[in-house]
Structures are given as C-alpha cells and as structure tokens.
Specification:
- The longest helix is centred in the N-terminal third of the chain and has 9 residues, at about 30-40.
- The protein is of the alpha/beta class.
- Helix content is about 25%, strand content about 30%.
- The protein is globular, with a radius of gyration of 14 Å.
- It has helices at about 10-15, 30-40, 75-80, 90-95, 140-150; strands at about 20-25, 45-55, 60-65, 70, 85, 115-120, 125-135, 135-140, 150-155, 155-159.
- The strands form 2 sheets. Strands 1, 2, 3, 5, 6, 7, 8 and 9 form an 8-stranded mixed beta sheet that branches.
- A hairpin with a 4-residue loop joins strand 2 (about 45-55) and strand 3.
C-alpha cells in the first residue's frame, strides 16, 4: 500500500502531541464506515463518521457519530439550541471543511466550526476517525478528540 499522507489533520494532531495509529485501506465509493470497518477488521461502532451539517441559518457544524448509527437531526437541533439541522450537500461540505466527502476529518478544517459528538463515543477505548483523505483512518483515544476539539457531547444517535 502507498505511504501514509501528511494531511492538515495529521499536522494538527502532531502539533497537539496526539498519539495515533495510521490505517490505509482500499476506499470504496459510497462504502462508508461499513467498508472501512471491514477493511480494518474492527467494529463499525468504533469507526466514527465526521459529518458536516448546517443549521437553519446555513451555519456549518461538525457532527461525530458512530459508524453504525444515524444522526437524529431533530434531537441534535434541540441540544444545539437551533430550529433545525440538515446535512450539507457534498460540495458545500467540502467547501466548509477543506476536505473531500469520504475523507473529511474533524481536525484541521478550513473553517472553525462547532463540534457535536455523540456522548457514548467518549466511553470507547479506541476509535477510528478519518485522517483527511479517502481510505485513510486514524486510530486514537476518544480522550484526545475531547482534548483537541472540545466538542459538545450530545445524545443524537438514531437507529
């Protein structure tokens, strides 16, 4: 497999002295966390999706969610104190994050955005989160995510 990329996410994590493992895998279009979990041989619940969404005023935000769960946008909006939250289309998400959908990392985004993280992610021992490129995940402690991103913990998992 090719050499691991040095993305903006990697630069931020190095700067913050976060310990992480690098995992390259064969990216499949529309495969999502099911494919990355299968390729890495880990539970999909530990693979964390980075989703770019926006509120009714088109203000972007980041949602970190278990790979095997959906985001209950109504529940999230209530906890975020906004009327509604909707997923951004790919082009808008790419513009906000500076990453390509399928390779979006919550670290080193182009624009600073509030981060909302499903509370139960913090209870996991190790998570796998996108490293800023399709087919590239980082294994790390959720405690480091809490320290670096300072997300608001929410209960918005559906399904």
């Amino acid at each position: 497999m090719s050499k691991t990329p040095v993305t903006q996410a990697i630069r931020v994590l190095r700067q913050q002295q976060v310990s992480y493992s690098e995992h390259l895998y064969k990216y499949e279009e529309k495969g999502g966390t099911r494919v990355s979990a299968r390729e890495l041989g880990v539970d999909e619940h530990c693979v964390i999706k980075t989703l770019i969404m926006e509120d009714e005023q088109k203000k972007p935000l980041i949602v970190l969610m278990h790979g095997d769960c959906e985001v209950g946008t109504g529940m999230l909006a209530k906890q975020a104190g906004v009327k509604k939250i909707t997923p951004c289309d790919a082009k808008t998400a790419d513009r906000h994050s500076g990453y390509q959908v399928g390779g979006t990392s919550p670290f080193g985004t182009r624009a600073a955005m509030p981060v909302y993280m499903e509370a139960s992610i913090a209870e996991l021992e190790k998570i796998y989160i996108n490293g800023g490129k399709r087919g590239f995940l980082l294994g790390m402690s959720p405690q480091d995510v809490l320290r670096v991103l300072q997300p608001q913990l929410v209960h918005a998992a559906a399904g």
